[in-house]
Amino acid sequence: MKRVLLKLSGEALAGDKKTGFDEATCMGVARQVKQLVDQGIQVAVVTGGGNFWRGRTSETIDRAKADQIGMLATVMNCIYVSDIFRHVGMQTEIFTPFACSTFTALFSKDAALAALEQGKVIFFAGGTGHPYFSTDTGAVLRAVEIEADAMLLAKAIDGIYDSDPKVNPQAEKYEEISIQEVIDRKLAAVDLAASILCMENKMPMLVFGLNEENSIANTISGKFTGTKVTV
Length: 231
What we know:
Layout: E1 3-8, H1 10-13, H2 23-38, E2 42-47, H3 63-87, E3 92-96, E4 105-106, H4 109-117, E5 121-124, H5 135-145, E6 150-155, E7 176-178, H6 179-184, H7 192-201, E8 205-209, H8 215-221, E9 227-230
Parallel strand pairs: 1-2, 1-6, 2-5, 3-4, 3-5, 6-8, 7-9
Antiparallel strand pairs: 8-9
């Protein structure tokens, strides 16, 4: 793979703390991504916002406003993780679909591709910029736009299961599954809109646990232990 989009779960970035940032976890991600960059692989990153805010769990405020808070949570995450990446020796640039003063650059496909060609790791913050779309959907959209070879989904769990492993200890993990099966069985790999976008645009996904040792580098090097989602 020459170009990938890495989707980082917000919850996974929090590590055992469950909220905010776990710096050791983020440093581990940065060092692994640097291995990819040093191999000449172009990397784009999308982060979730669940370590700060999950708008869909709110029962008291307007859904559009809740989603706007979630978008801003992803901007905070990207600013933080981007700077951790710089600390370990990478160049970065953050793009958002809305203006954030001097914090980020306004997204355009041409600008994002130019940054990748310059060897920068690029971050897509702010989702799609619209409510009712998850960061999963935003990640697939950007992966399709930049013509990534695959999406790497680094989550708090180590793959896709036939049921929720947190609830069912007997849940079985899939080594490989088609995106059509994910949709038909309503498996919670990514949300339905993201799954359909993947299927329509033939975007393969590799789903794995962020907190497993060297999981990002292993996914690229062929030592993959998560779930491969085919198209």
